[in-house]
Amino acid sequence: MSDTAPCGEESSKPRSGAFTRRAALIGTAAIAAGAAVAEPSQASPTGPNGHGMVTPTSYADAGNIPVSEPNQVLTFGPIAFEVPGRPVPLEIKVNVPAVGGNLPIILMSHGHGASNFLSSLRGCGPLVDFWAAHGFVVIQPTHLDSTVLGLRETDHPEAPLFWKTRAQDMSFILDHLDEIEAAVPGLGRSTFMADPGSPGRTRLDRRRVAVAGFSLGGHTAAMLLGMRTTDPADGSRVHLPDARIKAGVILAAPGVADEHTNQEMLDRYPVNKYTDFSTMTAPALVVAGDRDLNPMFSDRLSYRWDAYTLAPGPKTLLMMHGAEHILGGISGYDAAETSDENPARVAVLRAMVWAYLRSQLYPADPAWQHAVAALEIGSVESKEAAGAGGRQ
Fold first, then answer.
1. Burial class for 387, CB neighbours closer than 10 Å (0-12, 13-18, 19+)
2. Mean pLDDT lowest for which of 187-191, 217-221, 312-316?
3. Is the pLDDT reported for residue 24 higher than 90?
């Protein structure tokens, strides 16, 4: 279950459950500074500050999809947590809009690719930069399967995928939002807020949490949304949903094993034999490419959207036309592993995800309706909880 390809020293050992700030604060400017979107609002199709669409080179570019005005972004990391039983500390990176309060949260899970840094908190920049520029706090962990940690070929019982601890990493992050907020300059109530006097004690809106994941990260996201599997080591059923997560995005995730699945892959990654989407009841957007066919995993094209087909509603499938596994280049900027590099596709995809999460977390926000109406290089299909499907 892998993608086709997708600082500082601590002064003392952190105690269990505590964090060490080993980070530099990096400010990166979007096209224009503006108030981060915190409450439902009408998305503007005219681009930042009414000046037309931003240039294709901007990390705030949304293609032809109407989105909010972009904001400046602050990136802080890594923050290291000592987690009981984990062979190395859990490191995370936090991407924060420079202003605004009551900000929704996205937990982003990287893939299992062979690149040195894309399978870590350094990956998926084209997605996380955009989402943070448009009003989300995006938190990225480095999972234990990351190439940079060198644990894939060890005798650790979860190697090489560390599929179970990946989901546990995300729940741990939600358990420790107080410490994360305290560690990140400007994330607590401060002068960075457009309205420091607004109600509440934090810039984070903990009622509105989403998870997103790419490739193996999509498997991680699916587990947190209710997918079940079986631990090949002992045959026990594993079900790790987190009720604090209200919606999710599953990007190019592995599907269900059948007669089309590559047996050598299943021998190497036996957990892939047991994927069960029938219990994944939380709302989710499943994103797939209609050219994402890799016989090393399955010679069935629909394998990458089983999370939609085989899960109960409410689910939505976003099919990106002409896209292969990296979906145009979402795993990193100018990533060598991208076989179908297409910045315009990436711009549209990340804007569609933004719009979906806006409307899921803020039901009065029509962002998704407007995004679907504007979509030109993909198609959308949805089904409700009762199982009735229909094309949009």
1. exposed
2. 187-191
3. no
**Burial state string for 6-19 with b = 16 or more CB within 10 A and e = fewer than 16:** beeeeeeebeeeeb
Helix (H, G, I), strand (E, B) or coil at 93: strand
Q: At 332, which amino acid appears?
A: G
Nearest-angstrom CA–CA distance, 47 and 116: 35
Cβ proximity of 278 and 256 under 8 Å: no
Which DSSP string corresponds to 255-312?
Answer: ----TTB-HHHHHHSGGGG--BGGG--S-EEEEEETT--BTTTBS-GGGGGHHHHTSP
What is the number of alpha carbons within 13 Å of residue 370 lying toward its C-beta?
Answer: 21
Q: Are strands 228-230 and 237-239 parallel, antiparallel or unpaired?
A: antiparallel
Residue 264 CB-density burial (10 A; 0-12 exposed, 13-18 middle, 19+ buried)? exposed
CA atoms within 13 A on the CB side of 26: 13
- CB of 190 closer than 8 Å to CB of 201: no
Handedness of CA 184, 43, 289, 276 (dihedral sign): positive
pLDDT of 52 over the 70 cut: no
Helix 367-374 / helix 343-361 crossing angle, nearest 10 deg: 150
Cα Rg, the chain, nearest whole Å: 20
Q: What is the dihedral of CA 269, 271, 274, 279, to 10 degrees?
A: -130
263 pLDDT more than 70: yes
Task: Quote the tokens at residue 97.
Answer: 């809009």
d(CA 297, CA 369): 34
- C-alpha 324/C-alpha 104 separation (Å) is 30
CA angle 270–274–275, rounded 5-degree value:
115
Rounded to 10°, the helix 163-175/216-224 angle is 60
Residues in the chain: 392
pLDDT(10) > 60: no
Q: Give the pLDDT confidence of 122-152 residue by residue, as tens digits.
A: 889 999 999 999 999 999 999 999 888 877 8
pLDDT over threshold 90, residue 335: no
